[in-house]
## 1
Amino acid sequence: MDRIALHPNEARSPRRSSRRNRQETDGKRTPWKNTQNRLRPEKTIDEKIKIRRTIMRGTDYWIGGKTLWEMDASHMMEREVVSFTSDASCHDLSEAMIKGRFGGIPIVDTERRLIGIVTEFDLLNALLAGLDLRETSAREVMSEPICITAEMAAEEMMVLFQSGHLIRVPVVDKENRLTGMVTRRDLLAGYLESSLGPLPVF
C-alpha cells in the first residue's frame, strides 16, 4: 500500500501549461500527489526535516505543568514525524537519517498506518549484503515495529525502552496511524523538565 504520486503530465490542469505544473529540485523533477483533488508536490527530504524541527511537544511538557510520573507519551512525543512509504529507496532513507540526525524512520501506507520501521542497523545490514541502496526499497529491509499509544505512562515507556534496548518508538492511534515518536532523550528531558523547570527546545 504505497503512496500514489501523480506526475503533472498524468493529471494536468487544462488551465496551466506543463511547464508551470513542474517543480525543479536540484535539477530533478519533484514527485506530485493528489490531495483533495488538487495536485501539489510531494515534500522533499529537506522539507520533511524542516517541518519536524518546528513542531513542539505537549504544552505541559514545556511549561512544567506535570511531573515526569504524571506525563504520558502525548506530552513527550514529536508530533510531526519524518516517515516514508514502502517504495522509498534506502538511499533516500539514509539521507533523511543523516540530515535529520535520527536513527530510525517509520514506514507507513497511504493512510499513514504504520507498517514497518527502517533503522541504521537495517541499512548497514543491506550494505554488508552487497545491496545498492539506490535500488533497494524500504519494503525489502524494514522490520516489524514496536509501537505505543499516546496514553502510555512515562514509567511504562522506560520499562519498554530498557527491556528492549530501544532508542525511538513510534506512537500510533487506535487505527494504527502514526501520530508521533518518543525517544530516550524525551524521557530524560521529561525528568529534567519536572526537576528544573521548562527546557529550551532541542
Note: The CA atoms of residues 23 and 29 lie 6 Å apart.
## 2
Amino acid sequence: MHPSRSRRGWWNAVADVSRMLVKRASPALFAATMGTGAISGLFVAFPYATGSHPMLVFSLIIFFLNLALFILSFVLLAAKYIRYRGKWIALWNNPATSVYVGCFPMGGTTLINVATQVIHSEYNIGGKGFLYFLWAMWWLDICISFLCCWVGLHYMITNQKHSLEAMNATWILPVVTLIVAASCGGVVAGSLVHYSETHALNTVIVSVFMVTVGLCLALMILTIYILRLIIHGLPSGGPLLSVFLPLGPTGQAGYAVLLIGQNLRTLFPPLLGNAGFPLKPDTSAGVIVDVVCTCISFVLWSMATMWILYAFLALHTGLRQALIPFKIPFWGLVFPNAVYANLTIQISNAFDSRAFRVWGAIYAVGTLLLWISIFSRSLWELKTFLIIRKNADSNLEDKDDVQQEIHTHGSTHTSSTEIV
C-alpha cells in the first residue's frame, strides 16, 4: 500500500471517530471529572501519611489526568454545540440531560481545590500570582454556578415537563453547584488570607451566601425525592444509582460549613471591637462561629450517613430485581461517596476522633477502588467502541459517504458506546 494512502486512511479513521465522539458528547461527561477530581482531593486529605511526598505525587498524577479529561470534555462539547447550534437549545429543553450542565462548574472546582492545596500551598509554584489566578477562576466558576442554579431551575419550571414518578435525585445537580463552589471558596480563602485578609473575608462571605442558598434548595428537592420514593418506589435501571446523589449536597455542605468556620475563626471581627488584622483567636467572635459551624457540619454528616444507609438498601433491593448495565451514570457514584469520605476525615480532625479517622480512611479507600473499577471499565468500553467503529468502516470500503453515514447511525446504538 502506498504510504500516502495509508496515512490518509489513518487520518480519515481518526476524523471519523472524532466526529462520532463530538456527536455523542454530553454534559454528563463532566461527572467523570467531578469524580476524578474528588479522588485527587482524597489523597490530600487522607488521615494517614497526610502531606507525605507519595500522597502529594498521587494527588498530582490524578490532578493532571483530571485536567486532561476536563479539557477533552470541554473541547468535545464546544465542538458539538458550535457545529450543531440547534442542539444547545434542545439541551436546555431536555429534562433528562440539562441537569448535567451543573457538572461543568463542579468539575472545575475540583481542579481549583487541588491546585490551591497542593501546587500552591505545598510546592509554592507560581506564588501570589498563581493563587490570584485560581481566585479569578473561582469567581468565574461561581458565575457559571449561579447560572446553572437559577437559570437551570427556571428552565425546569418554565420550559420542561416533569412528573413526580419520573423524578430522580439528579434534580439536585443544578443547585448543588453553589454548595460545591462554596467549599472551593473556603479552600481558596485559607491560602488567600496570607496575602489579603480583606479578599479572604469577602470570599468567605460569598461562600456563606452560596452554601445557604444551595443547601436550602437542595433540602427542598430532597424532600420531594423522599415523597417520590414513598409513592412510586425505587427507580429501575440506571436512575437507581442516583440514590447516592444526596450525599453530594449534605456532605459537601458539611465540608463547606466546616471550612467557613475555620476561616472565620481568625477573620471574624473580634469581641472587643478591634477590627485590625490579624485577629487573635482568643479575642475573636470567630471562635464562637467556628464551634457553631463545626456542630452544623456534624449534623450534615449525620444526614449524609442516613442517606448512605438508604442508598445501600435501595441498591441491594434493585440489584436483586435486575442488573444495571454499565453507562455513564455510574460516574455519579464517585463524587458523592468521595465527598462523604472527605467530610468524615475533616470531622475526625476537628474532633480529634480516632473512630472518625478510621471510618473516613476505610471509606476513602473504598471510594478509590470504586473509581478504579469505573475508570477501568470506561477504558474498556471506549476500546470496544473504537473496535466496532473500525470493523464497521472496514466493511464499508466500497460504500459512499451517505451510505456510511446511514450505517454509522445504525451502529452507534450499542451499550458499548453509552459512555461516550
Note: Residues 3-417 form a domain with the Glycosyltransferase fold (CATH 1.50.10.150).
